[in-house]
Design brief:
Helix content is 66%, strand content 2%. It has eleven helices and two strands. It has a two-stranded antiparallel sheet with strand order 1-2. A hairpin with a 5-residue loop joins strand 1 and strand 2. The model has no long low-confidence stretch (mean pLDDT 91).
Length: 257
């Protein structure tokens, strides 16, 4: 299933993206935004199937009534849970600031931020999805989940690295925000932050995917009561994303599930 491959690739790539590998951000954002939009639309498609007693929505309905806005899709999913009294397996609503920031960034990316490099070249509106992610996701994760001792270790390591390596060579990178990284201390500190938050950012993304998979599975069962043969077994296709957090933490690669 294409949606499964998109989500698996995006969940894998988001763990690898950093200032030295910024193309990975755009790969992850592209796969995740398309994958989440598709699964969100699948949920609303099944809801339409239930409401109309077995009719799928038209292309015009999908395009004009459902749209591409991930934030709107999320709000409509919350309404679905309440109206249909869905028994979502994992009772996690994506109301934390970090979850919401991830959805907003992916939603903006889907609606136009994917063209940010072209916008810069032609003097259009300025946007920086990787920079937004660093400030609104990575730094929030770092402040929330990284212990004071770990932060101190990162700081000490970056200082030591800077003192030693500055005598041997030079570093030249660009940060996610577009600022120049020209010291080993800065590069080392950013690497330390990345290594600390990478597993957490992947976990939060997987929690967002799981939220949609759980809703889709519930709607699948309701739809099958109307026409069993018309509805795929989404719970089997996307079952790998419906696990507990403990399982999510146990693996790094998700494009092979």
């Amino acid at each position: 299933m294409f949606c499964k491959e998109l989500l698996g690739a995006g969940a894998t790539q988001i763990r690898k993206a950093n200032y030295a590998n910024q193309g990975m951000y755009f790969q992850a954002f592209s796969n995740l935004s398309i994958g989440l939009e598709r699964i969100g639309k699948l949920c609303l498609t099944l809801d339409h199937f239930i409401v109309t007693n077995g009719e799928f929505p038209t292309e015009e309905h999908l395009k004009n009534k459902i749209g591409h806005d991930l934030m709107k899709l999320y709000k409509r999913s919350q309404k679905l849970i309440t109206e249909r009294r869905l028994k979502v397996k994992h009772q996690l609503l994506l109301d934390s600031p970090i979850h919401k920031n991830i959805i907003r960034i992916l939603s903006k990316f889907a609606k136009g931020d994917r063209y940010s490099n072209f916008d810069f070249l032609v003097g259009g509106r300025q946007s920086n999805p990787a920079g937004d992610w660093y400030l609104k996701v990575d730094m929030e994760l770092y402040n929330k989940h990284t212990t004071r001792r770990k932060k101190q270790t990162i700081q000490e390591n970056s200082k030591t690295t800077g003192e030693i390596m500055s005598r041997l060579g030079m570093v030249w990178h660009t940060s996610e925000q577009g600022a120049e990284i020209n010291s080993y201390a800065d590069a080392s500190h950013r690497t330390g932050v990345f290594e600390a938050v990478a597993p957490k950012r992947q976990l939060y993304v997987l929690q967002i995917i799981r939220y949609w998979v759980d809703i889709l599975s519930e709607l699948q069962y309701l739809s099958m009561h109307i026409n069993h043969e018309a509805i795929p077994y989404f719970n089997e296709i996307l079952g790998g994303f419906s696990n507990r957090d403990s399982y999510f933490r146990s693996r790094k690669i998700w494009n092979t599930i």
